[in-house]
Amino acid sequence: MEKKVLLSAKEVEVQFQVRSRVLTAIRRVSLDLLEDETIAIVGESGSGKSVFTKTFTGMLDTNGKVTHGEILFEGEDLLKIKNDQGWEKIRGKKIATVFQDPMTSLNPVKTIGSQISEVIIKHQGKSKEEAKKMAVELMERVGIANAAERYDEYPFMYSGGMRQRIVIAIALACRPKILICDEPTTALDVTIQAQIVQLIKDLSQEYGFTTVYITHDLGVVANVADKVAVMYAGQIVEYGTVEEIFYDPRHPYTWGLLSSLPQLGIKGEDLYAIPGTPPSLFDVIQGDAFAPRNPYAMKIDFEEEPPMFQISETHFAKTWLLDPRAPKVEPPKAIRNLHERILQMIRPEGGYYGGE
Amino acid sequence: MKQYILGRVIRSVLSVMAVVSIVILMVYLMIPQSKVFKNDSILIKLAGKPDEIAVYKNTKLEDLGYLDFVQQQDLCRLSEDYDRCMEAGSAASQELKAEYEKKGYVFEEFTNGLLYATRSYLPHELVLNFFANFIQIDSPNQVIDDDNPDLERKIYIEKDYNGVPAIQCSGCNYQYLVYFDSSFPFIHQNWITLNFGISYPTYSGLDTWDVISSGQGELDTREVVYETGQTGTTAMNLHACQYKPSATIDHLDQNKFNSNYANCANNYKSPSMINMSYIIGGLGLLLAYLISIPAGIYMARKKDQWPDKLGTVYINFMIAVPSLAFIFFARQIGYALGLPDKFPQYGFTDLRSYVMPVIVLALLSTASLMIWTRRYMVDQSNSDYVKFAKAKGLSQKEIFNRHILRNAIIPIVQGIPSSIILCISGSVITESVFSIPGMGKMLPDAIKANNISMVITLTFIFTALSVFALLIGDLLITKIDPRIKLSSKGGSR
Q1: What is the extent of the structural domain holding B52?
Q2: Is B466 among the domain residues?
Q3: Could you tell me if A107 lies within 8 Å of chain B, comparing CB atoms?
C-alpha cells in the first residue's frame, strides 16, 4: 500500500550563532513523513533530534537559522514563512508539539479548561461555549474522569500523568496532521509512561495523524514506531522500518546504540558503551562523523563523507561499509538474533512494559 | 482562611505593639530630659523664678508622661487637717514625706520651704501607661462637671442639625458619636478615639493626632443654622463638638447651643497633612504604575531591541542621578513651562500646583518598577509553558497578554497595597523642595525638636500601616494566584 507523503524535508541545514561562532546542528538532512505513520527519531543527546523537528514549526531559538534546504508541507515550503503570523496557521493547527515536561508545559495560573479551549477558539473560530463543550469531550477522550467538573481546575491540582494527558488534549484539539512528541514520557514514571504511549498510539489511529517521536527510549520505538531514523552528529545515519532497524541494522552507530540497550543486554555481561564522545559541531567534519568512535572505521571514513546507501526499498544507511569495495563485516554478537528479546519488550496485545 | 487572617491580625497587632514599646523606651529613656526644654521660650520668661521653673518643668514632664509630680498641697489633702499640714516642715507633711519616699518619690523644697516630689516612671510603667490610655471609648459617664448635676446620661438616636439621623450622646465627651455628612468617607465617628498624647514643643498643647489629621490653612466658613435656630457664619464643625464645663459656658454659646456641647473643632480650607501627602502620593503612584508597567512589558517584548535598550538607558539614568538633583532639575523645567515651583503659590485648589510634584514623584519610582516588571516578564518568557503556548499557535501578543502577564504581575500586585498605603508617610525630599504641607517632614522635624509624643504617634501609624499593607498584599495575591492558599497550618490546601 502506497502512502502519501505529508511532509518532505530536503537537505535541511540548521546553524546556530553561539558567541560569534557558528555551530552546524543539522547537516543536510532529508526525511519524508508519510500519512498515518509513526516515525521515531532516535539518537544521543545533542544529535539534533529536537532541533530538526523544530524546523517544522519554526520554533528554533532566536540564534538559530535554517541555512539550506526546504520543507514541503501541503504544497508550501515552510521555510519561506518569515513571520510568526504565518507560523500561527501551522503551529497547533496543522503540526502540534508535545513537550517533555508536563509539569511546566501548562500555565500555572490559568485553568486547565481555558488552556484547552483557547486553541479551539483561536484556530477553529468557535464560540466560548462550543469550545468548552469540545474541550470537555477531549478531556474525556484522553482519560480525565469528571472532565466537566475538572474543567475549571488549575494545573497544580493535576498529577504529572494527567497533565501530560491535558497537554496531549491541547495538541490534538485542532486535529493536527502531524504530532511531534518531544520525549513525551521522559519526565514520567514507568507505568504512566506506558499509559501515555498507549494513549498517543490509540489516538493516532482514531484521529489519523502522523506521529513523530523524539526519544532515547528504544523500548518505546520498538513498540509504537513504523519507521525509525537514527541521528548522529546532525545527520540521519540510518533510516528504515522498525523491523529493519532492529533486526537488520547496518550502520555501526546503530549497532552501538542497540548494544548499549539495558533491556537487550545479556545477564552477567558488562553493558556495552560506545567509546569516545560525539564530534564538536563547531568544526567542519571531515569524512564520517562517527569514524573516530567506530571500531570498523576504514581509511576512507576519515577522508570522505559516505553517501546514503539504499539497502531495501525502505532501508537506507550512511556508511562506507555498504560500499561493494568494503570488506564484509558482521554486526556484534550482542545484537544478533534480537527477535526474542525485543518481543519480550512488547506485550502481545501491543502494550508496552516501559523502559529501564 | 478566616483562622489564618485572624492569626495574622493578632500577630500584626502584637508586632506593632512591640515596635511602639521599643520606641517608647528609646525616646523616654535615651533622650535626656534636659533636651526636652531646649527651645522652650516660656522658661526664658521664667528666668530668676526657680519655684515657677520647677513647677512648670515638672508639670510639663508629667503631661508628657515622664514622671508623677506631687506638691505639698496634693499630699496634704490626704491629711486630716489640711491647713496645719500645709505649714512648711509640719509634722503631718513629714509623715507623708516618709511614706512617699518609700514609694520611690524624691523630695525637694521650694524656696518657701514647701515640699514637692517627683517619681520617674519605671520602663514598664512607661509602656503600660501608653497602652492603658491608648484607646478611649466615649461613654455617658465621661463628663465630670459638678456645676451641672442635672446632666442626662444616655446614648440616643436623633436627627442632627442637618436633619440626618445620628447616634448622639449626653454625658459623653462628644455629642455626636456616629454621624453622616457629605464629605468622604461619609460616615464618621467620635466614639472610639486613639490617644497618642500631647504634642510638645512643636504644635504645643495640641493632640498629636489632631496635628496631622485636621485641616490646615485658612478657616472654612459657611452659613449654618445652630440648634437654637440662630443662623450665623462659622467655621465650626458642628458634628465635632465636645463638652464644655458649665463654668466656661458663656452667653454666646448659649445662643447657639441647647446643651453644653459647645467646644467645636474648626473646618479648614486646606486638607490635613495626611490627606495632602495622600493626594500627591496617590496621584504620583497611579502615574508611576501607568507608565512603568506598560513600559516594562514593552521592554520585555522587545528584549535586546532598541526599545529595550532605550528603556535601560532611562532606568540607568534615573538610578544614577541623585534624586535631589533630579527634583530640582524637574522643578526648573516645570518653572520654565509656567508651573509653580512652590506648592503654596497657587494653593491646593489650583490644579497647576499638583503637576510637577506628581510628575516628579511618579518618575522617581518608575525606574525600579520598570526594571522589575521587565525582569518578571523576561523570566516568565523563558518558561516551558510559553514554549508550549507558542507551539499551540498563539501569537506573541496573545502569549504576552494572556499567559506571561498573568504570571509576572503576581509579585507586582503584592506590592501595590504597600505602595498605596505608605503614600501617607509622604516623601521627605519632594515635599520639602515644593514646600508641600504634607507628612514628609513630620518625622524628621519631630525627632529634631524632641517631640516625643509625635515620634511615637508617627511610629505607630507607619508601623501599623506597613504591617497591615503586607497583610492586604498577601490576601490580594491569593486572588490572582490560584496556587496560593492562606492556611494557618502548613501543607494543607
Answers
A1: 28-126
A2: no
A3: yes
